Amino acid sequence: MQQKVNSVIATLNNCSDTAKAVNEAISFSSEKGIRMYSALLASKASSSVISKPTKSSVFRDIEIEGTRFLGYVDRSGPAIRKVPVPEHSVGNGGSVSLGYAVEIHYIGSFPDSTIRHFIARQPGWWICKYGPEEPRININHLSEIGRHTLAHQFGIPIYPRSDEQTNMGFPVEWKLPKYLRLPDGDILFFLSPSFSDLCAWVQAHPRLARSSQFEEFYMRGWKAAAIKGEFVPDWQGWRGDSIKGA
After folding, report:
1. Domain containing residue 59
2. DSSP strand pairing (50-51 vs 58-64)
3. Is the full-model pTM beyond 0.70?
4. Whose CA is closest to 188, among 141, 228, 238?
5. Whether the predicted pLDDT of 79 surpasses 90
6. Paired strand residues for 126
7. Is residue 242 very low, low, confident or very high in pLDDT (cuts 50, 70, 90)?
8. What does 84-152 look like in DSSP terms, one character per residue?
9. CB 158 within 8 A of CB 147
């Protein structure tokens, strides 16, 4: 996997026409751009993930830096839940649907409008729904590698801190736009390790997976893809529907 990641990054690093590379490969609305971002997450992630046996509606149970995260299926479709940790008194636990609405953000302050959906307000890194206005799972205790590992494992885009100069890990001379829109989680999930586990869960629970009780609002096509065991998107069709700002 790392060799493939390095190959993708090297190809783009060696592109002589940086403007063309930014516009076409790193637009994140093309197949190459989306796969590139997924590969970037993998390159920044750690391989030290502890997998645990799953049961019931849980299709993925992993431990990252001492914290357990569950991938499970509820009425809204695939979702992620942080198992409460006794020593974490702030922002303990929490869950959110996986798919196009899930993102990771650094939140420096909380206006009154963000009181809903979580136990306590604490500046730091959060898994959010629809952006930083709706923080759901506090992950500030994870290191930078830990956050990228979590993002890679479940296919969640990580937005950089707004108060930091960043280039998303790409060569600084590319000067990417500060407010570049990243790929949404509803397509990154299918490129993540969790998708394989979801396929295995569907194979183990075929009748349950086909039932109408599970929706596809946040991740269209997940049931058909998991039943088939692979995801072959219409990349052109995805550009307008899934990638915001495309």
Report:
1. 1-246
2. antiparallel
3. yes
4. 238
5. yes
6. 105, 138
7. very low
8. P-TT--SS-S-EEE-STTEEEEEES---GGG-TTSS---SEEEEEESSTTSEEEE-TTS-HHHHHHHHH
9. yes
- Max Cα-Cα span within the chain: 52
Task: Write down the residue that tokens 């149970």 correspond to.
Answer: 61
The pLDDT score that the predictor gives to residue 168 is 52
The angle at the Cα of 136, spanning 133 to 142, to the nearest 5 degrees, equals 110
Over residues 134-171, the pLDDT tens digits come to 889 999 989 989 999 999 999 999 887 765 545 555 55
- What distance in Å separates the CA atoms of residue 30 and residue 236, rounded to the nearest whole number? 8
On whether the CB atoms of residues 203 and 169 are closer than 8 A, the answer is no
Q: How many helices (H) and strands (E) does the chain have?
A: 9, 8
Confirm if 154 and 38 have CB atoms less than 8 A apart: no
Write the DSSP string, 163-213: TS---TTS-GGG---TTPPPPPHHHHGGGSHHHHHHHHHHHHSHHHHHSTT
In the chain, the number of structural domains is 1
Nearest Cα neighbor of 7 from 45, 30, 35 is 35
